[in-house]
Task: structure prediction
Amino acid sequence: MLTSLNINGMAVIDSLAIDFDDALNVITGETGAGKSIIIKALVLVTGGKASADVVRSGCSQAVVTGTFRVPARHKAIQCLESLGILCPYDGGEHLIFLRRHVTSTGKSLAWVNDVPVTLQVLRNVGQLVVDILGQQDNMRLLDPAQHLNYLDLFLTNHAPLEDVGRLFNAIMDVVRGIERRLESYHAARSSEDYLEFRARELSDFSPNLEDYEQALSLCERAGTLKAKQEFLSRAQAMIDEGANAEPLSLRVWDAVRTLEKLGDIGSIRPLIGMAQEAADLLDQLSFKLCQAASEVDFSEEDLGPANERIATYQDFFRKFGVTTVPDLVAEQERLSADLALLRNLASELAADISTLAASVKHLDQRSLDLSKERKKAAKTLSRRVETELGELNMPDSTFAVELTAVNRIPPSLDFKGLDPALSEAWTKLSPSLAACGESGRDKVQFLLSANKGEKPLPLQRTASGGELSRIMLAIKKALAAGAETCVLVFDEIDTGISGKTADIVGLKLKQLSRQFQVLCISHLAQVAAYADAHFRVEKMAKGARTESHIVRLSSSESAKEIARILSGTEITDPSIKNAKSLVERAKRASQSITPAERL
Result:
């Protein structure tokens, strides 16, 4: 049960704390007083959508906290324990604290038992403990697409439904894979000759990173060596041809011979020695430069192939729009894969379709099993809803569940250019895929006849607002026996009804409160009369601001509020007397609830 709800900084609520009764809680109040904000707060704290609009003007954030007490073996406890979130144990029950923050910038944060969690975790836990039925849920009954979900709630065996969903999704994954490969096949097939030419060209060249780096290194090293050889040869040429195309040493030797003609003059002899030494050094330098140039390990024959190899790499880079050797190798692998696809696809698809055939056969069987379960559930739903509607002042109504066959358009696969047997095999599978979807082979529509002797028609053609409210209440009441939720919340479930029917709705809610905690926002005095705890929401001015408050009413205050609902703004003695009469009648009717209906 929801023991308390705390709301801070939300819409017209500054700060609000509500402690609920464990049975039937009825919330009333003037239109616009803020009753719907209570529902919005519950939606928020159980993982519903939120936006910055919910934050009260002037506040940095809206904060909603809900405290729940649930049985030890409840699914919510199992869910939290699987996440490593501990739940305090108190008096035979576990406590769960749900908290939601929404900032003025729209950011949303969530906690369970003070542990930060994702919004999905909060939603999963919230849906296990609270079932909120709003006015929009009544309108969903007008959408046949929603009827299958309601019917499946009455399945006694959910295994076929789970199997059908799993099998169908697995089959469609395989089908989508076949579609992608066929698209690649047809794209590749249109340029098969070009692919083969490019693949052969690359295969003959056999690009690889080691080869590229070796050729590039050789070219770079050869360039350095060639430059070295050229500089050494140029230096030698300067020595050998620097004197009018004659060796420099020859001129120096001429200088030696000229000086020797002076004879053995003491001051000249050292000069002659110096000239001889210089000439000899020049000859040696020329020899050493020639020797160094000849020792450079460089060959034009080696450089040529390496340059050609690098040029071919660059040409391939341009052709394939890549800039690195790994990218070029990847293109070669892609070409090989495309060609392998062209050559091997038929056999691969044959294997896939053979596997699909077995899966589709299994899907057919499980979808038939599911249809049988749904037919049984449809009888149960019709019987229970008709019983409930009879008690809700629709005694002559007929509620029927119509099941028709699904007729989907199966995927269209283009096997052109491949083995015709593939197309034939797919054609055999297509009818089964057309007759079944993720939810099986059934479409469901609810039919209603509110009057004896009239043919049941689709709800959207025949049901009034009040009838929709009663049908939804009947479905919820019919589901109550197997439900595991802790709290049922009804937001104006009594829309469109009045008089005797309103009194019956109040009794039904009272019956539900014997199995669940029930929170009901209502505008009907007959419903409020059945309340175990009656709350009034009121809006008042506080300074320059408007705030909504909620007050738990005493017996006498409850009678006055019921009188207000009956008579309007002016509460008279007759209206109070009438209100007390309603409460007394509700107490007597509540005593008629059999012990078997109590928990």
